Amino acid sequence: MTDNFRSGFVTIIGRPNVGKSTLMNHLIGQKIAITSNKPQTTRNRIQTVYTDPEVGQIVFLDTPGIHQAKNKLGEYMVNVAEHTMRDVDVILWLVEPSDYIGAGDRHIIEQLKKANIPVILVINKVDTVEKDKIFGVIESFSKEMDFAEVVPLSALRGQNCDVLIEQIFKYLPYGPAYYDEDTVTDQPQRQIVAEIIREKALHALDEEVPHGIAVSIDQMKFRKGKNVICDIDATIICERDSHKGIIIGKGGSMLKKIGTNARYECEKMLEAQVNLKLWVKVKKDWRDSDYLIKNFGYRKDDYDGI
Questions:
Q1: Given this model, what pLDDT does residue 27 score?
Q2: Are 162 and 36 members of one domain?
Q3: Contact indicator for 198, 242 with CB cutoff of 8 Å
Q4: Residue 143 carries which DSSP code?
Q5: C-beta of residue 47 within 8 angstroms of C-beta of residue 59
Q6: Which residues contact 149 (CB under 8 A, 6 or more apart)?
Q7: Measured between alpha carbons, how far apart are the two ends of the chain, in Å?
Q8: CA distance 279 to 270
Q9: Are residues 56 and 161 located together in one domain of the fold?
Q10: Burial status of residue 231 (CB atoms within 10 A of its CB: 0-12, 13-18, 19 or more)
Q11: Pick from 32, 35, 19: which is nearest to 126 by CA?
């Protein structure tokens, strides 16, 4: 570690589905946050760590997308995202390559103006548009507020991500590392497993069902012995009886598909053989129940006092 070592906290904010989790996974070089093409995939504040022993350490906070909340879970998610802006050293605002600034982005601009923290505008998905269009996007957003930096990139393809890391370090204070060099996340394994199962369900299920599911890990134990085997019992919670039928599928086919895909990814993450058993339960309107929201791991304490 050098005398010029920099360290600090950086939050990634933006509307749902702009690629925040994909960007964070790419920057740290490991999949921690789940991704899907459905909005509201990220529900919690997820902390990951990028360390360059010669330069410094960045602690990233991936947040839920800021959106118009329709239930208590939605309110929780927006609160997490907006509270996380308060005490970080740099804010990355992720937008799509469009020069149209809608109501959702205008709401974020109002929040950013109050924050008084360096904001780096990150224009994601630049691989999906002509290069000339990016200049118009930069011009439109720069009229709304002053940005410390503007970085166009493609999180999916890893294009220009190294430039973003360089720009972030410019704005971090000098100081020691917060985490050991080999730390990648503060997320417990159980939570990552639950999120992997939810991701595979998001990928497999229809539009209306995924928003109403949560995953609870009932048991997770490593067997003693020569071969490392992990037994995991998990329950997928949904809001309606009709959803339960869809999640299970004809002859259990959908549940089997979710389980097979989740098991494969859990084995990679845990570096162990996984014996995964899945159940499905109905908890009507759980997204509007304070008790059940807390029970499924979405806790108000996650953003209080940030």
A1: 87
A2: yes
A3: no
A4: H
A5: yes
A6: 120, 121, 167, 170
A7: 28
A8: 21
A9: yes
A10: middle
A11: 19
Q: At 43, which CATH number?
A: 3.40.50.300
Q: Which amino acid is at 244?
A: K
- For 187-190, the CB contacts below 8 A with 24+ separation are 187/32, 187/46, 187/47, 189/220, 189/269, 189/270, 190/217, 190/220
Alpha-carbon distance of 97 to 123, in angstroms, equals 6
Reading the block at residue 285, the tokens are 């309107």
CA distance linking residue 190 with residue 219, whole number of Å: 9
- In this structure, are 204 and 151 located in the same domain? no
> Considering 139, 170, 201, which residue would you say is the last residue of a domain?
170
Domain-located, residue 259: yes
Answer with the one of 125, 140, 170 that is the final residue of a domain. 170
CB 9 within 8 A of CB 59: yes
Task: Give the whole-angstrom CA distance, residue 185 versus residue 238.
Answer: 28
Q: At what angle do helices 241-248 and 253-270 cross, to 10 degrees?
A: 70
Nearest 5 degrees, angle CA 286-CA 290-CA 292? 45
Locate the DSSP E strands across 69-175: 90-95, 119-123, 149-152
Range of the domain at 194: 189-302
The pLDDT score that the predictor gives to residue 74 is 54
Decide: 5 and 175 in contact? Cβ < 8 Å.
yes
Run means of pLDDT, 10 residues per run, the chain, 306 residues: 84 83 82 51 66 92 58 57 72 92 87 88 94 92 95 93 96 92 79 86 75 84 85 91 91 94 90 93 78 58 38
For residue 303, the one-letter residue type is: Y
Structural domains of the chain, count: 2
Neighbours of 57 (CB within 10 A): 24
201: CATH: 3.30.300.20
Q: At 91, phi and psi to the nearest 5?
A: -115, 130
- Give the side-chain half-sphere CA count within 13 A for 7: 18
* pLDDT of amino acid 302: 42
Residue type, 192: I
